[in-house]
Amino acid sequence: MAPTVDVLARLPAPLASHLRIALEDEHALTVVDGWGELAGAVRSRPTDVVILDPRVDGTIETDEVRKLITRHPTLPVVVYTLLTPELLRATVELADLGIRHLILRGFDDEPRRVRELLERLPAQQLSDLALQGLAPQLDAAPPMLRRAITRLFDAPHAFRNVEDLAQAAGMTRRNLDRWLDRIGLASARMLILAARLIRAVHYMRDPGYLLDDITKKLGYGSARLFARQVRAATGLTPTMLRERGEPEQLIRELTAQLSRQGSGNV
């Protein structure tokens, strides 16, 4: 099952329309109108990748691209544009800014290729690591529950509470609890907390995000609640968690906490 990717785009209408078709219903796409709006959305909305056309206003604005990459050096940025002589002249400068992915309209924007590119992003790699750790339990889960938990780790902000997870799994809250116990997973509440923390770890790798930004992106009502849940799960404050290295080790520790022996039958 392909991961859900949150795409933030600054594109002219024709390119935005084609991108929406390419993503189908598998990924979330938000299109903004201006560079200032883009900068604000990056800080406040769940964002796995920015797709932009540096010539959306008629001329190639490499300064705006530079500002974005300087503020958020770990945020993947994909340039999606038309092939023009002006673009060819700017290619080296864009590469120097750190642009590693260039999609040209009509040449390499076939939908399957676009989706494959997005599904290799860093945030998805961390989610995949967590899901790999839970693979034995997920293999024993009903298909709808397995898909719901996969989506939870791919897009934790889309699940406000346990009821949302139960609904995605096509179960009542009681049946969800019984199935999680049967397959050897921790409670739904702990699954949601772990999924949010793993995405928080990804955001914390970017110095451009304040802790308040991360709180908003994950859908927490307050920084205090976020801090309390981080400490409950890890024993660390958000600041300490941010300073801790080796995110992969932290994710392995979290997923180990989520695995337990089942204690009954459904």
Textual characterization of the structure:
The structure is a single chain. It is globular, with a radius of gyration of 20 Å. Helix 8 crosses helix 9, helix 8 packs parallel to helix 11 (188-204) and helix 11 (188-204) packs antiparallel against helix 15. It has helices at residues 13-23, 35-44, 62-71, 85-97, 111-118, 122-133, 135-139, 143-154, 162-169, 173-183, 188-204, 211-217, 223-234, 238-243, 247-258; strands at residues 6-10, 28-31, 49-52, 77-81, 101-104. With 266 residues, it is an alpha/beta fold. Strands 2-1-3-4-5 form a five-stranded parallel beta sheet, with helices on both faces. The model is unreliable at 261-266 (pLDDT under 50). Helix content is 58%, strand content 8%.
